[in-house]
Specification:
The structure holds two protein chains of two kinds.
Chain A: H1 3-38, H2 43-57, H3 61-74, H4 81-107, H5 110-118, H6 123-153, H7 157-160, H8 165-176, H9 179-209
Helix pairs in contact in A: 1-2, 1-4, 1-8, 2-4, 3-4, 4-6, 5-6, 6-9, 8-9
Chain B: H1 8-12, H2 14-46, H3 51-65, H4 69-82, H5 89-114, H6 118-126, H7 131-146, H8 148-161, H9 173-184, H10 187-217
Helix pairs in contact in B: 2-3, 2-5, 2-8, 2-9, 3-5, 4-5, 5-7, 5-8, 6-7, 8-10, 9-10
The chains are: A mainly alpha, B mainly alpha.
Chain lengths: 213, 222
Amino acid sequence: MGAPEFLFLLQGLKWTVLLSAIGFVGGGIVGLLVALARTSGQPLLERGTAAYIALFQGTPLLMQLFVVYYGLALVGLELESWQAVAIGFTANSSAFLGDIWRGSIEAVPKGQTEAAKALSLSYVSRMRDVILPQAIQISLPATVGFLVQLIKGTSLASIVGFTELARAGNIVSNQTFKPLLVYAVIGVMYFALCWPLSLLGSWLERRIAAPTR
Amino acid sequence: MNYTLDFGPVISGLPDLLKGCAGTLFLAVTGMTLALAIGIGGVVLRDSNVKALRILVISFVELIRNTPFLVQIYFVFFALPLVGIRLSPTPTAIVALGLNGGAYAIEIIRGGVQSIHKGQIEAGLALGLHKTDVFRFIVLRPALRAVYPSLTGQFIMLTLTTSIASAIAAYELTSVAKLIENESFRSFEVYGTITLLYLAMSWIIMKAFAVLSMRYFSYPVK
């Protein structure tokens, strides 16, 4: 495995990072709506989002990617493969982040909501100024943990045929006949991405567990 | 949109799909068993007095938890023959699933073991119980009970992860679905259907764990 192959792997790494970023940002936006709907107190919205979350948590990510990939083509959307997988990861992250943030919103003491209501704050202001700032703090370790899961999950885009790091590794491995070396190298690359985040996650967890005052 | 859904190939392939479900459940259950064994063994080594063993276990856990399963299964697939172990894809997948689930199980079970009060162990030893009995009855069982929800969640994830074993053509539901898709080109219908089958299987496993919990962990705490 020489320099050209290594550069090809780095190209794949770039796509892994991009795909994770798109999935995280897109999933974050939709996930916030999911979390808000899940805690809205409206039975229909709550049940709908609960089913949405259960569907994504109870099926393999690989299947979700397949269904989104072929489903979008089926309804006549002509998308490039990166767009299709980006939509798949966005949907998946929105369910997982929605559930994490639902838990965090519920973990904010009830008195905060009551106080905000007593001050006759509107729903928007109550959420934006009182509940969410506290919920975000609580959710940080789990959110970072999910980001690690998302980065690892993007490797499945390779099975759908999108050339990110894992598929780049596949291609190089087929060319060089050195699968063990190639997979060790891409393993190290994934590790270099994920490990710092894992450390950050456990540091955040310790910081929250420790009494602040 | 002028595409009509055709579930014909799915219906005619249903017996094969159900066999694939059995394959998936087999992978999941054997993988979980191996993972539990690695988890318990790993916790013992993780807290042993030998520093090298502790470092080994910590590195193993961090390595597995921070790399994708797809890369792990490929690595195991190509690495085992090099060390002289020739296995067909399905046992290879079990090894990879066991290693992956084991790393997570070590972390989870360790949390439970740490929640056991030191006085309990001292009391057990004072009563003249053998060290292994103290570990089995006073440490391990209550520890497993304490972390049962997280462990169950992890094992359901393991069940869903088995779909990735299709990458090395192990016998399970996704591989079977791929075959049917290749013959019929009804991708959406095939994958949509097996997504629901996966949903049903994760539900069944969740219920099975609830029953197991009633059987093994419904003893009084105080």
